[in-house]
Every structure is written in structure tokens, then in C-alpha cells.
Amino acid sequence: xxxxxxxxxxxxxxxxxxxxxxxxxxxxxxxxxxxxxxxxxxxxxxxxxxxxxxxxxxxxxxxxxxxxxx
Length: 70
Known about the structure:
Low-confidence stretches: none
Order of helices and strands: HHHH
Largest sheet: none
Oligomer: single chain
């Protein structure tokens, strides 16, 4: 893996992470956000885990991250 390839992969993961986080965050109610102040950290951890495992589909990642919050 060259530096350029690693940079491209990192940029793609950042873009994918941002998209997935926005999709999943919109599905969480305001009440739940208030009741569970650490919900953003749990969402973040789930998304990062999936990206590290090689997941690439934004909707399936967001769905799995949302399910992991329960």
C-alpha cells in the first residue's frame, strides 16, 4: 500500500463515516438524545467498528449502528 492509496482510503472512510453518521443521527428522537447523553459515542463506536471491518454500504452501516444502540 502506497501513501497515496492509504490517503485515498482514509479520505473515502471519512466521507463514508460522515454520511453514515448523518443518516443514523436523523433516526434518533430528540427525547432519546436527551435521555441518553452518550448515544453519540455509542453511534460513533459502532460506525467505526463496521468501517474497520470493511463495510462500504452507507445504509446498511447506518442500520446496523442504529440497531446497536438498543
